[in-house]
Amino acid sequence: MTDTTSQPRSPLAMFFSLGFRPFFLGAALWAVAVMALWLAQMFDVLALPIGLDPVSWHAHAFLFGYLSAVIAGFLLTAVPNWTGRAALSGAPLIALFLLWFLGRLAVLTAMWWPAALVIALDWLFWRQCWFGCCAR
């Protein structure tokens, strides 16, 4: 039987109800954006304040940007299915996604920040991802 008394959830609430939605979309958009930015930097169309040579930045962008979002989306969705625990959703998932995105922005502007801050954002993302899916 369907419960017709509950309010319909907003599209934003639905989007942030499971970890794979924001992180898989974020990974796809990041991959496209990074390819465009990397090509622009390689052909001297754009100079980004990254502080890494183009090959190192390319590797970092796909390992820590794309791959970390895919792994996070998978773990935040699969682990609750495997363990029967509630999935991370709503405000905590939004905060985790924003932390991932801030890490990406910090790397894109790494010359403007202390290296420890840029590293800390990625470390904090993985720490919170672990506690969000595996250690609760």
What does this structure look like?
With 136 residues, the chain is an all-alpha fold. The protein has five helices and no strands. α3 (54-83) packs antiparallel against α4. It starts with 10 loop residues before the first helix and ends with a helix. The model has no long low-confidence stretch (mean pLDDT 86).
C-alpha termini separation: 32 Å
Determine Rg (CA atoms, Å).
17 Å
Shape, please?
Answer: elongated
Counting copies of identical and different chains, the oligomeric state is single chain
Largest sheet, strands/sense/barrel: none
**Unreliable stretches covering 5 or more consecutive residues:** none
Percent of sequence in beta strands:
under 5%
Strand tally:
0
- Please tally the helical runs, counting DSSP H or I stretches of 4 or more residues: 5
Approximately how much helix is present in the residues? 55-70%
Return the structural class. Answer: mainly alpha
Order of helices and strands: HHHHH
Mean pLDDT metric: 86
List key phrases describing it:
single chain; 136 residues; mainly alpha; 5 helices
SSE layout:
Elements: H1 11-15, H2 20-42, H3 54-83, H4 91-108, H5 115-133
Helix pairs in contact: 2-3, 3-4, 3-5, 4-5
Offer a quick outline of the entry.
The chain is 70% helix and 0% strand. By secondary structure, it is mainly α.
